[in-house]
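In this section we walk through a basic example: taking a raw amino acid sequence and producing a predicted 3D structure, encoded as discrete structure tokens. The instruction is simple. Fold the sequence below.
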Amino acid sequence: MASLKRATTLLSNFRRQSTITKSLPQLTKDRYPHIKRGDYATLSQKHLDYFVGLLGRNRVLTDPSDCEMYNVDFIKAVRGYSQCVLKPQTTEEVSNILSFCNQHRLAVCPQGGNTGLVGGSVPVFDEVVLSTSLLNKIISIDDISGVMVCEAGCVLERLDETLGERGLMMPLDLGAKGSCNIGGNVSTNAGGLRLLRYGNLHGSVLGVEAVKANGDVIDCLSTLKKDNTGYHLMHLFIGSEGTLGIVTKVAIHCPSRPTSLNLALLGLHSFEDILRTYSRAKKELSEILSSCEMMDASSLDVVTSHLKLKSPLGEFPFYMVIETSGSNEKHDEEKLNAFLESVMGDGIVADGTVTNEPSKIRLIWDLRERITEGLLHDGYLFKYDISLPIKDFYSLIPKMRERLGSDASRIAGYGHIGDGNIHLNISVPEFRPDVLKKVEPYVYELTSKLKGSVSAEHGVGFRKPPYIHYSKSDNAIGLMKELKNMMDPNGILNPYKVLPSQ
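The resulting token sequence is shown next.
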């Protein structure tokens, strides 16, 4: 009874204004007033009583200060006002929560590490947040097959460290690896820095366990590399961003960890030189090439000026990070050095440095991985994750600079040149609707004309549903809506995300 009384007090406390909101972004409902709240129930004491009875007092958060971090996205671009965060520890608890919410028409926002960049992991209005952070057990690792089974809330970096003790590695590497969860990675089909070598998660994930909106547990947790028994149902949950079901367990194939690792940072004078260098790297480094990244001078500037990181190279218009990984240190070093001598001798690369020392490798990767963090120091960030034909990879940046002029304080581009995924970033001191109107849908129209995708690896989330038609046909969108209606007829799972409302 005491816990229920406390829940009552906490619910009423949420209506108080808190000083912590002063540094937070505007509520999504106010910034995007055209988005209307769906026909969902409002959280009541009856609902809270059930959640506390199921999970206990400590795993039902209702205090405003406790809930706030779950309401705001990583780049502080969107913000909901959920009054309740639930922290289940088992699939059964997830099932019970969803069954109850579906019965009572309570909207639910699934959330892992909350490192998403398109507003897909935070509430838009007052959806109940279901955090998977306590679903964090590694269930098994098979040293022979390299298959790991784990719960959705496991942090990516922790998984990689544990696998490293067994001579294995995660096939996925992200700048947010210290806080992102594998369930969120799978639910967004995250790409990352080594997709060039290991492919995306549709190829690495062997099975999933997921819970549908009505609480049904779908066990597709196969650990076999070959399992052709009927429809590949697990692929419905990979990349669906929690709109079809909540992933609770994952089986993933983990490759052997390389024993030889080398990293080069290169300075180049033009984007054409980047294309030539990448083409040569594919041919001359071939089987040991594991990552190929690019960043322009403006992108590097945010980590050297805002984060005070030191670059080992001088100033150039463009930079590349090239990683090789293999099992023969002498062979790999000779191959990379020969490649660098070749491209520098031909005048394609202006300057470069190469290392196999872990501390120096970390320094170079920080220059690339911490760009988003550095950009946040500029103010408000309009961020676009786009796939383009590689020849057109950098084409949007000069077009946006010409279009926006002095309206933007910075327009920078960086990303995965090896798979055509450019990250376009537009910084302004604070959010401006007039700048947004100049950028959207113009940036998506350009992407569509170039036969690109409006979302490469971050998903669609809240920010991109109105623009998904630039990459998907009406028939494809219609089929996705049919799947959504079939699997979640009450629309309680992550509403306002992925699919356009009309």
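Looking at the output, two observations stand out. The CA atoms of residues 342 and 348 lie 9 Å apart. The chain has 19 helices and 16 strands. In the next section we compare this with other chains.
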